[in-house]
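Just curious. Invent one:
>
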Amino acid sequence: MITIERSVRSSLDAKTAFDYLSAFEHTPEWDPGTPVVNKLSAGPVAVGHEYHAEAEFRGKRQALTYKVLELSSRHIKLRGENKSVVSVDTIEVTPADAGCLVKYTAEFTLKGLLKVAEPFMKPAFQSLADPAMAGIQKALDSRASQ
């Protein structure tokens, strides 16, 4: 498994930040590596809801189906899967100073023959993290200044 964990601070309050980030369909607004996310379930986000996502990885677009596994007032865990990878994404938002701290953990498990390549693929997966975290900070801070 490849695990990537990053944190970012924002001046936006924790509740508003979490409400925005837990609506997974907003992901394309802050993650340049995930240009498409469509909510497949009706209503506000809830455990069991599903999303269709398209992620760009190493020049190719990969479709994944995500499902919300856990949801609380400051924590969401989603599991995405396609024929070659399982991705478990966890977002935690906590109050910090005059804003919030966002902790994002992504766990990737490659399937089949790709599994033996995991150690060599880690840098490629890590390269996705910094642009996404910068996007989260920019999206949240822009909402704080409104």
